[in-house]
Structures are given as C-alpha cells and as structure tokens.
Amino acid sequence: DRSRRAARGSIMKMYDFTLAPSPRRVRIFLAEKGIELELVQVDIMRNANRTPEFYEKNPLGSLPILELDDGSCLSESVAICRYFEEVQPEPPLFGVGAREKAIVEMWNRRIELEIFAPVGHVWSHLSKVAEGRGRRIPEFGEIQKRAAIDRIAWLDSELKSREFIAGDRYSIADITTVCMIDFARTVDIRIQPEHTNLARWHSNMSSRPSAKA
C-alpha cells in the first residue's frame, strides 16, 4: 500500500536493538500500521550507542532513533510512534476524538510512569546484566520491584471489565504494556496465577502477529 511503498522508497531507517523494550514498542506499532522500515542494529550491550557518531544522532545515547530521509533524527519511542500516526492515521493507535485520545494518553502515561519506569530501575539496580553499567543501589531496586509488583496487581483489577488497556480499542497503551510485561520477566516480575484478567489480556495481545515484531 501507499505507506509501505513510501517506507521502501525512502532512505528512512530506524536504529534498533532487538532485546530492548523501547525499540520493540516502535516495531509493534509499525507492524500494526503495516509500515516497513530498514532496521539498523545497534548493540547497546557492547556500548555501540556510546560513540561520538551515535551521540550526533541522539545526545542521550538511547534507542530507538528514527533517521528521516533528510538526515535529521527523532528519538523517544512514543515521539516516533506519533510521527507515524500522522503519516498514516489508519488504524488509529492513539485514539479517535478528544476524549478517547485523552484516555489513551492517560493510560499510556500510567503504564510508563507507574510500572515501566520501576521495572527499568529494577533492571538497572538488581539485574546481573546491568552490572558495571553505572552506580547501583540494591535497596532502591528492591523498593522499585515491590512498587512494580503492586502496580501489576492493580492493573489486573482494572482489566476486569474491559478488553484493552485504554477501553474498547487496541492502542499504543496495549503496545506499551505488552512490552513492559515481557521485559519485566527479565527481572523476575511476572503475571501471577491470581492475575486472571491480566493473563487473559496478555494472551490476547501476544497472539497478535505484531507482537512478534
């Protein structure tokens, strides 16, 4: 279709690392839109994102980065997703109409701030993989792990009466949440047997073809 041809016909590309949750969020978003991009792998575990050349693309050194056909770059996964929402509005993944867009934004931010961020702190301060990658405070990591576990239980209760995170429509809030849940397993934070609503939701989201992106 038009979007696929546009992506293939340009030199637009995305700097990616398949094991990181933030680039995966964009890959799932693109898969839902049917947009294909060139993906350039950057091994952040070997500090390939800490070179002067990489800092020119993103001074914070984080992934993903979308390099546009004029050579300019966008970083931050939600910002990249918003760009593609404007490029190709269908299917709408940020909501339709003022109220729904606000609800999607609310839930996406809740997941990011209340669960995803604590999970990231657990990874940074407690995981073996992150050893030697900055100052670690294990006590802080444990506090954040407890907070993430409590919030996951809260999310399970929220999903009792609806199919998707932000209401009746699949959205970026679902994409953010599935990336968070799957990444949380790397630090032994998991959906528990009593979280039947969240387990049902996760099974449905994981069965979408885009989840394999």
Range of helix content: 40-55%
Alpha-carbon distance between the two ends: 19 Å
Radius of gyration: 18 Å
Domains counted in the coordinates: how many?
Answer: 2
What is the overall shape?
globular
How many strands, which pairing sense, and closed or not: the largest β-sheet? Answer: 4 strands, mixed
CATH architecture of the largest domain: Up-down Bundle
Q: Beta-strand level of the residues, as a percent range?
A: 5-15%
| Class per helix and strand makeup | alpha+beta
The level 1 CATH classification of the largest domain is: Mainly Alpha
Number of helices: 8
CATH topology of the largest domain: Glutathione S-transferase Yfyf (Class Pi), Chain A, domain 2
Unreliable segments of 5+ consecutive residues: 1-6
Mean pLDDT: 94
| Helix-strand string | HEHEHEEHHHHH
- Count the beta strands: 4
Largest beta sheet: strand ordering = 2-1-3-4
Question: How would you explain this protein's 3D organization?
Answer:
With 213 residues, the chain is α+β, with helices and mostly antiparallel strands. It has 2 domains: 2-87, Glutaredoxin; 97-212, Glutathione S-transferase Yfyf (Class Pi), Chain A, domain 2 (Up-down Bundle), CATH 1.20.1050. The protein has 8 helices and 4 strands; from the N terminus they run αβαβαββααααα. Strands 2-1-3-4 form a 4-stranded mixed β-sheet, covered by helices on one side. A hairpin with a 5-residue loop joins strand 3 and strand 4. Helix 2 (21-33) runs parallel beside helix 4 and helix 5 runs antiparallel to helix 6 (138-158). It is globular, with a radius of gyration of 18 Å. Residues 1-6 have low confidence and may be disordered.
